[in-house]
Amino acid sequence: MDTTVTPVDHANPIATLPPSFRWGVATSAYQIEGAVAEGGRTRSIWDTFCEVPDAIDKGDTGEIACDHYHRMPQDVALIRDLGVDLYRFSVAWPRVQPRGQGPVNPEGIGFYDRLTDELLAGGVEPWVTLYHWDLPQELEDAGGWPNRDTAYRFADYSMMVFDALQDRIKTWTTLNEPWCSAMLGYAYGAHAPGRRDFAASMRAVHHLLLGHGLATERMRAASDGRHEFGITLNMGVSTPQTDSAADRDAARRSDALGTRIYLDPLVRGRYPADLVDDLARWGVTLPVEDGDLEVIRTPLDVLGVNYYFSETVSGVDEDGNDTDPDGLPVSRVIPTGRPLTAMGWEIVPEGFTQLLVRLHNDYGLPIYVTENGSAFDDVPDETGYVDDEDRVSYFDSHIGAVALARQQGADIRGYFAWSLMDNFEWAYGYDKRFGIVRVDYDTQERTPKRSAYWYRDTIRSLRG
Ligand code: FCB
After folding, report:
1. Which end of the chain is more exposed for a tag (fewer CB within 10 A), N or C?
2. What is the whole-number distance in angstroms between the Cα of residue 167 and the centre of ligand 1?
C-alpha cells in the first residue's frame, strides 16, 4: 500500500477520539470463505437458500465468494497493512460441526486455528462471532430457530469453538443481528431459510436469545476470567413522521420489535410489556419457560452495535387507514429525501449519534460498533482502483457521529468498518459492494480502494 498519510482535520469530531480507541474491520464466513464443500463442511441454510429460484439477485451463491478459505494468509496481510487493532470474523458452524451434531471436525476448526495464529503473528487481535447466519441445514430440517432444541445445539457448538481458541482469543460474541435471523429469515422470507411465518419468527427470537444465554454461561464458566462475552445487534432510530398518535405508535412498535425485544431481556430479564401486549392482540406468544430469562440476562461485557441507517415511519397508509386488510397496524417507511446508498438506505449519521447515546442511557453497556459501512456503485479504473469518495464521506460522517456520542457520555470503545472487502451481500449477491478493498470476482484480485487508505491514515493520525 501507498504510505502517504492524510493528516486528520482537527475541526472534525473524529479528532477527539483518543489513542486508546480501537479500530477494526469485519467480515463473515459465508460472505467470504467459499469452499463450501471442502474440509468436511456440510451445507448451511444459505447453501440451500441460494438454490431457490429468484431468492438471490442474479442467482449468485456463496460457493466461491472471495475464496478466502484458500487466500487467508494474503487477506490477513491486507488487514495488517491497514494498521487496524482488531479483525472481526465469524466461524461457520457446519465447518466446525458438520451437520450440527457430533464431535468437532478437526479440519474445520483447523482453518480458524490457522487464521487466529496468522492474525496474531501480524499484530492483529482476533474477535469472534460464533453465528453469522449459517445454520447447519440439518438443524433447520429439525425446526430451525423456532425449535427450542436449536438453542442447546448452539451452546454445544459454541463450546467446541471456545475450547479450541480461547487460549488466544479474548472477545467472544455469540450472535450477529438476531433481528435478521428471526425477521428476514422466518417472517419476511428474504433470507435463509426463507420462511414467512410471524409466529415462528417470534419463537426464533426467544430461542436465539436463549442460545446466546446458554452459550455465554457455559463459556464464562469455562473461562479463567481473561475473556469478554457479548452479542451484536443491528439497530437504528425510528422517528415518527408526524406527532399523530398513529405515527408515534408505529415508531414505538418498530423500536419494540427492533431494539427492546432484544435488549430488555438481555439487560433487564424481561420482554417489554407493550410488545407482549401487541403480540397477545395478534395471537402470538413468546415461548418463555421457567428460568429462561435468568439465562438470557447473563452479564454482557460488551454490546456490539451494527448501524447502517435510520428510518422515519408512519402509522397510516396512503389513504389514511391505520390498519391493513388483515386488521394489523400499518407501519410504513417514509422517504425523507436524504441521499441514499446503493442499498436504497438513507444516509443518517445523526441517527447514529442518537442511537448510541440512547443505548448508553437506557442500557449502560460498554459498546463496540461491530459494523458500519455503505455500498455504492463503484467504478474501478483500468488498474482496479476505486476512488470511492462517497464511501469515504459515509465513513467520515459516521465515525464523526460515534465521536459525538462519546462526547455525550456513551462508553464506545471501538469501531469496525464493514467490510474488509467486497463480498456476498446475501440476497443482493455480489452486486452490492461494501468493501474498502475491491474484489475482482473473475480474478480474485484484491485492490484497496481510496476508503482503505483513508481508513488507514485516519487510524494512524489519531495514534499521533
Ligand atoms: C449486516 C450484516 C452483514 C452485511 C451488512 C451489510 O446486516 O451483518 O453481514 O451484510 O449488513
Report:
1. C
2. 28
